[in-house]
Design brief:
Chain lengths: ~190, ~190
DNA sequence: ATCATTCTGTACTGACAGGTACAATGCATT
DNA sequence: AATGCATTGTACCTGTCAGTACAGAATGAT
């Protein structure tokens, strides 16, 4: 492994694929568009992902999941609730680039792509909601409200992504996130 | 025009296309899957929509837009604000079948399909937010809060669709809508 | 019954889809 | 510098894509 290597590793390819699936969706991301945008030939692609496009998407989803598990869900379960929740909003804004980048998991949930990755999609959101609800309970919120409040926050991020992209308005995304952050701790 | 006619009219085809685009997305909705699911042959399809798939999707979006204009936006602008807002939540729940049916406009906003229909997508959400914010102002809400509150409601519906579909949980959709409805008038 | 028009099924096209085969290359180790 | 394995480009496969052509069936008006 050297800094100047021209050859790829599987780990280098996944982030590139992620951006392409985000922009084009699963069906829109054709092999030729992938090779065109990444400069990686079919040979390499099928070497790293023998299962083809489906394995590529699965690898991307797994990486997304790992990222959220590490930087959002785990802290919510482990750290001081108020701090972890504040970090969640910050991380969400950074990860989604203030609405400039969509949530691949949410996008896959909307069309028939969901069927292929149902378990992964479900787990991603389920664990987010549960971790956040847990943090809310630990911060003193009654358990009866915590789940609904957590669902509301997670759903709000997804909605903010849709709307800010629809209106091509990043400011809306930040504004919505700020408001949700306030509401989550006060109400 | 007779009740027993076996031949289609353009107006008959659009709702069928709508469901297909909703389920499969723009890229996923291939001509053969359209003919397969609707039973309408290519001949008829290209007769009604000489511009092909893009014209089909545009027709669907236009119909969606018309529906919301008539049953949501216009009432919000015209009728008693409290009543129109209550009707909006009811209509949203019915139209999206408690999360069993996604918002095509929102789904198109997420991937590159947005580029094709940017103006329509923007207008759909822009007019929704403006009409709702206007109703809120007329109901006594300060203009400084109205827009943000309206954005929040619209984005919340989109997010609820994503999340309820991701978790395959219609109850979540209804619960989220109820909560948003309460928050919109109280807070 | 005729006729012009609207509508429809079938067959076709060239382009491109996902995927495979494999020879050639790059690189770390020795 | 030779070996062995990871990586890559190219050519190719079969199926499906969006779109076209067009003959014929159904329709409404006369």
């Amino acid at each position: 492994m050297s800094a100047l290597r021209t050859l790829y590793e599987r780990a280098d390819v996944v982030p590139l694929l992620a951006e392409i699936f985000r922009e084009l969706g699963f069906e829109g991301a054709t092999l030729s568009r992938i090779t065109e945008r990444t400069g990686i030939g079919k040979g390499s692609l099928y070497h790293f992902f023998p299962g083809g496009k489906e394995e590529m998407a699965a690898a991307v989803l797994a990486e997304v999941d790992t990222w959220f598990e590490q930087f959002v869900y785990e802290p919510l379960r482990r750290d001081d609730p108020a701090e972890a929740i504040a970090a969640m909003w910050k991380n969400a804004d950074a990860y989604f680039r203030s609405g400039g980048r969509i949530c691949l998991v949410g996008a896959f949930a909307l069309d028939e792509t969901r069927e292929r990755f149902a378990a992964t999609i479900n787990g991603y959101f389920r664990r987010w909601i549960d971790a956040l609800a847990g943090a809310l309970v630990r911060s003193g919120r009654p358990a009866s409200e915590a789940t609904a409040a957590a669902e509301n926050a997670v759903l709000g991020i997804q909605g903010a992504l849709v709307l800010s992209r629809a209106l091509d308005d990043k400011a809306l995304f930040k504004r919505a996130l700020d408001q949700m952050a306030k509401r989550l701790i006060t109400s």
